[in-house]
Amino acid sequence: MAFDATFFAFVGLVLFLALIAYLKVPGMIGQALDKRADNIRDELEQAKRLREEAQALLAEYQRKRKEAEAEAAHILAVAEREAAALTEEARQKTEEFVARRNALSEQKIRQAEADAIGAVRSAAVDLAVAAAQKVIAAKADASVQQSLFAQSVGQVKSRLN
């Protein structure tokens, strides 16, 4: 029997496969592939967890953003109400101030009128007294003046007692 190169190649192949089987290379390759598959699976699970955490954070930030927008809207509404109240209060105080100033002005005008009327009456009385004094002085003689003086002194005494 003649051995040719094909036979030796076949024997070499069988020996190579036997050596690989003896050294448990397929098991090592399988373990390496299993380890790589486990690593990929772990990375996928970690990526899934990270994605879920990211979605949870996104949802939380969206919720916080909505709460912040609602709070901002509430603060804006409160500020608008306060501004309206302050405006109304300022308007009322201005109206009250104007009313008080008008009343004070009217009171001063009435007082000025009363003072003017009093001054006119006083001047009229002084004028009437002066005129009466001149008329009485012109018509009265010494005896009439004496009796009038005595009568006036009597009235003053009766009033004082």
TrEMBL record:
Q: Where are the transmembrane segments?
A: 6-25
Q: Where in the cell is it found?
A: Cell inner membrane; Cell membrane
- InterPro entries referenced in this protein's UniProt entry, alphabetically: ATP_synth_b/b'su_bac/chlpt (IPR002146), ATP_synthase_B_chain (IPR050059)
Key words of the record: ATP synthesis, Cell membrane, CF(0), Coiled coil, Hydrogen ion transport, Ion transport, Membrane, Transmembrane, Transmembrane helix, Transport
In which family does this protein belong, per the annotation? Belongs to the ATPase B chain family.
Q: Which PANTHER family match?
A: ATP SYNTHASE SUBUNIT B (PTHR33445:SF1), ATP SYNTHASE SUBUNIT B', CHLOROPLASTIC (PTHR33445)
Name recorded for this polypeptide: ATP synthase subunit b
Q: What is the lineage of its organism?
A: Bacteria, Pseudomonadati, Pseudomonadota, Alphaproteobacteria, Hyphomicrobiales
Which gene is the coding source of this polypeptide chain? atpF
